[in-house]
């Protein structure tokens, strides 16, 4: 192999310059250099400069048309990555390299061994090709699932695309997945990729178009919006006070817990099976004025239809080799939170009791479900999964366009990080704080990453590497962006005409029932937000407005439910007693709680329902 240059000038142990003889070399490529004591060392070109003798005066002469010869030489700056010793430890040379040493493009063997890039097709997820080299990059699936992952980039940076790549790889290996899909982007996994640009790149990556219709199941809590999905129904039978409080997100409200405890105890004593309607009926009879919060909340939840018979079985949601999409498109944010909180808790419990196989939970738009500030019903359980999931074989992958807004406890537990282009300084800071060994050079690279390139670090990959993300087997679902922008420009065009135009402009659409999505997008752009309209039609909006009366539904700081003032002194007294009673209640039960928890958990899982 011909050298690409020769080391010159002052030479260090961590950095050196080389006179470039092969002008095709590029920044970030890996080089191989022989060290007098340590043998072959891997380095990475961190910069390339063209040094010329063109002075200011001569440049001016050039600008007025004079002929000026320009002498130039190209120099490369190499940052040393290291070498492996006999025990496979990554080491750095402790003495300088020698000037005059030849620099070569790094061999695949050296790159793989120093960077820890195994080519294990059985246990690895093929995510792309090492930038500048013809080396396929595999992420170790065990590490990825056990130790969690984060996919971070600015909006439109390619997060959903690379998540699709990961999901395809996990499905090919039979790893069960549950994907929280707030925008309804992932059902396209069922269809083979027919994007012309992607098809042209398939040979390069060794990929063939392939749909995963036999492996993917789509659920939604509202199948009137998401018509291709199977209904996701929660179990409303014999919910205890703790379950109910989960749906209310008012853990601070001891009063409400007290009422719910009393009501559920009574129902348990009277009935073998009771429903939410039974609970509402009995709460209505309660004297405590706080009851209205409970009644309003559960009537609202009932109106959304998320409870019902038969409830979805957890063993149907999580199956060997199945990818389950929870399509939350068009579902209001508070209901989305409720669904994700309840389901994540059930999945964690089911994994703890080994009722479902080890799996990966994927959370898109994670800044909404585990926010750094403001709280969310989902925060607690996602924190628990991030910190304890590894022990129980429940992996978490979080995806976000706002890394700075994701809870640090969750982000710091994500050992594998996949980063695409990020420019926001706060987001960059959050990423750099959560990644060990991220050099200043890499921080700059993150801001300049072109579309389709990603930085991967963690897991089996010891130092951050840049890859070209492989093309998808299946169709990418995030194609709504160009449709939306085109629709915005053409607002005044009648809907039918616009649909026809769009169909002509995007021949790849219009198949697989995608007209439907198109119409939804157009509806939204037209100012008639479909979800808003549906809620208005069903009276849900009115109830929601009534419930939140000037408060922020999503904020935990603000009580989400207004407590009515006690009307009489008697009632105020009753309220007080209730609260102190609750405290005692809680103290009494605290010790028993832990012991009872496991037994309770077992019992709850008997119904195999979310
Ligand atoms: N590796 C890639 N190869 C080819 N096209 C890509 C790649 N990554 C992204 N794209 C294209 O870029 C666009 C945006 O990608 P994607 O939907 O993944 O972005 P995102 O980061 O998920 O955006 P958002 O924040 O809006 O969810 C898509 O149209 C997709 O086709
Ligand atoms: Mg996305």
Task: Name its key features.
single chain; 610 residues; alpha/beta; Elongation Factor Tu (Ef-tu), domain 3; Rossmann fold; 12-stranded mixed β-sheet; 6-stranded antiparallel β-barrel; 22 helices; 19 strands; elongated
Structure description:
- The protein is of the alpha/beta class and 610 residues long.
- The chain has 3 domains: 111 residues, Elongation Factor Tu (Ef-tu), domain 3; 253 residues, 3-Layer(aba) Sandwich (Rossmann fold), CATH 3.40.50.300; 149 residues, no CATH class.
- The protein contains 22 helices and 19 strands.
- The strands form 2 sheets. A 12-stranded mixed sheet has the order 9-8-19-18-17-10-16-15-11-14-12-13. It has a 6-stranded antiparallel barrel with strand order 1-2-5-4-3-7.
- A hairpin with a 3-residue loop joins strand 3 and strand 4.
- Helix 8 runs antiparallel to helix 9.
- The chain starts with a strand and ends in a 5-residue tail after the last helix.
CATH superfamily of the largest domain: P-loop containing nucleotide triphosphate hydrolases
- Overall morphology: elongated
Count of discrete alpha- or pi-helical segments spanning 4 or more residues: 22
The total strand number stands at: 19
Tell me the structural class. alpha/beta
> What's the architecture of the largest domain in CATH terms?
3-Layer(aba) Sandwich
* Hetero compounds: adenosine-5'-triphosphate, magnesium ion
State the helicity in percent bands. Answer: 40-55%
Q: Count up the domains.
A: 3
Share in β-strands: 15-25%
Spatial arrangement of strands, main beta sheet = 9-8-19-18-17-10-16-15-11-14-12-13
Oligomeric description of these chains = single chain
Radius of gyration: 29 Å
Biggest sheet overview: 12 strands, mixed
Contiguous uncertain segments of 5+ residues: 510-531, 547-572, 577-588
Mean pLDDT reading? 83
Distance between the termini: 61 Å
Please identify the top-level CATH class of the largest domain.
Alpha Beta
CATH topology of the largest domain: Rossmann fold
């Amino acid at each position: 192999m011909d050298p690409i240059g020769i080391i010159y000038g002052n030479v260090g142990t961590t950095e050196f310059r080389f006179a470039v003889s092969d002008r095709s070399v590029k920044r970030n490529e890996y080089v191989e250099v022989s060290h007098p004591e340590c043998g072959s060392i891997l380095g990475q070109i961190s910069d390339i400069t063209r040094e010329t003798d063109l002075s200011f005066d001569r440049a001016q002469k050039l600008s007025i048309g004079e002929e000026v010869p320009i002498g130039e030489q190209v120099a490369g700056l190499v940052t040393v990555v290291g070498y492996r010793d006999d025990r496979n430890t990554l080491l750095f040379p402790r003495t300088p390299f020698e000037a005059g040493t030849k620099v070569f493009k790094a061999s695949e063997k050296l790159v793989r061994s120093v960077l820890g890039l195994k080519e294990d097709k059985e246990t690895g997820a093929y995510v792309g090709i090492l930038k500048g080299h013809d080396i396929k990059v595999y992420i170790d699936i065990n590490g990825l699932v056990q130790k969690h992952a984060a996919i971070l980039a600015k909006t439109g940076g390619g997060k959903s695309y690379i998540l699709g790549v990961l999901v395809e790889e996990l499905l090919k290996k039979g790893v069960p997945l549950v994907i929280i899909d707030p925008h309804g982007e992932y059902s396209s996994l069922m269809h083979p990729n027919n994007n012309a640009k992607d098809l042209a790149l398939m040979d390069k990556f060794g990929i063939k178009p392939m749909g995963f219709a036999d492996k993917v199941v789509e659920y939604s809590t509202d199948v009137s919006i998401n018509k291709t999905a199977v209904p996701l129904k929660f179990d409303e039978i014999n919910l205890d006070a703790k379950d109910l409080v989960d749906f209310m997100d008012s853990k601070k409200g001891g009063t409400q817990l007290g009422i719910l405890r009393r009501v559920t105890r009574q129902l348990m004593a009277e009935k073998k099976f009771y429903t939410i309607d039974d609970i509402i009926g009995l709460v209505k009879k309660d004297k405590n004025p706080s009851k209205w919060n409970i009644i309003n909340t559960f009537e609202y939840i009932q109106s959304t239809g998320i409870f019902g018979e038969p409830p979805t079985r957890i063993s149907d949601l999580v199956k060997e080799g199945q990818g389950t999409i929870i399509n939350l498109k068009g579902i209001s944010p508070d209901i989305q939170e409720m669904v994700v909180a309840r389901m994540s808790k059930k999945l964690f419990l089911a994994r703890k009791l080994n009722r479902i196989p080890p799996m990966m939970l994927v959370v898109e738009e994670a800044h909404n479900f585990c926010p750094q500030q403001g709280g969310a019903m989902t925060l607690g359980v996602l924190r628990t999964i991030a910190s304890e999931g590894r022990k129980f074989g429940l992996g978490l992958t979080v995806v976000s366009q706002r890394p700075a807004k994701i809870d640090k406890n969750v982000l710091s537990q994500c050992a594998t990080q996949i980063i695409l282009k990020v420019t926001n300084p706060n987001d960059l800071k959050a990423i750099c704080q959560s990644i060990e060994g991220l050099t200043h050079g890499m921080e700059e690279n993150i801001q300049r990453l072109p579309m389709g390139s990603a930085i991967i670090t963690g897991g089996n990959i010891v130092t951050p590497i840049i890859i070209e993300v492989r093309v998808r087997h299946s169709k990418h679902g995030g194609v709504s962006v160009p449709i939306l922008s085109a629709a915005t420009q053409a607002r005044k065009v009648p809907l039918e005409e616009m649909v026809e135009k769009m169909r002509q402009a995007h021949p790849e659409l219009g198949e697989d029932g995608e007209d439907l999505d198109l119409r939804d997008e157009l509806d939204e752009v037209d100012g008639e937000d479909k979800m808003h309209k549906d809620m208005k039609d069903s009276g849900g909006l009115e109830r929601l407005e009534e419930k939140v009366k000037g408060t922020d539904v999503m904020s935990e700081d603000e009580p989400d439910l207004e407590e009515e003032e006690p009307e009489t002194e008697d009632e105020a007294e009753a309220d007080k007693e209730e609260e102190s009673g609750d405290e005692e209640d809680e103290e009494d039960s605290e010790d028993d709680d832990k012991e009872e928890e496991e037994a309770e958990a077992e019992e709850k899982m008997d119904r195999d329902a979310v």
